[in-house]
Write a structure and sequence with these properties.
Largest sheet: 4 strands, parallel
Shape: globular
Radius of gyration: 15 Å
Distance between the termini: 13 Å
Strand content: 5-15%
Structural class: alpha/beta
């Protein structure tokens, strides 16, 4: 059975699709595709059915990542099938834990930057939506930095399931 990870931001057009794309690439590079499923969603449904923000698409493509994406809203019923829900900032963390039907489900929610030791206490990935292209570059840098630690944690879980 696959280990399932879902990245969540506000509208699912900037940060979470970027994290999904980067982490999916890391999973493939590690030879874990097929063992780990990666997707994303938003806490709200404002952009459901839309593609990623064009600035997200540009940054992803410039760095060699897949930029295909369709926005959707997180549904609390998904907790039952997810192993890990990754919030991009503390507001998403609170919202997701509030949506969780059980304490066990709430425990599945983590902040992405908590997997980056260099982040220290600065665990939010800032929303680049209202800024310029540089905010999307900074977002990608934070996502890539945290993906290393996240991959190690997920690998440990996947290998533990196989044992």
């Amino acid at each position: 059975m696959a280990y399932r990870v879902c990245f969540v931001c506000t509208g699912n057009i900037c940060r979470s699709p970027m994290a999904e794309s980067v982490f999916r690439a890391r999973v493939a590079e590690a030879g874990l595709d097929g063992l780990v499923e990666v997707d994303s969603a938003g806490t709200g449904g404002w952009h459901e059915g839309e593609g990623a923000d064009p600035r997200t698409v540009t940054v992803l493509r410039e760095h060699g990542y897949d930029a295909g994406h369709t926005a959707r809203q997180f549904d609390p019923s998904w907790f039952a099938r997810l192993d890990l829900v990754i919030a991009l900032d503390s507001g998403h963390l609170r919202a997701l834990r509030h949506l969780a039907p059980t304490e066990r489900d709430a425990d599945k929610v983590r902040l992405l930057r908590s997997y980056d030791p260099a982040a220290e206490d600065d665990l939010d990935v800032p929303d680049p939506y209202y800024g310029g292209a540089e905010g999307f570059d900074e977002c990608l840098e934070m996502v890539e930095a945290a993906s290393t630690g996240l991959l190690a944690a997920v690998r440990e879980q996947v290998e533990g399931q196989a044992a």
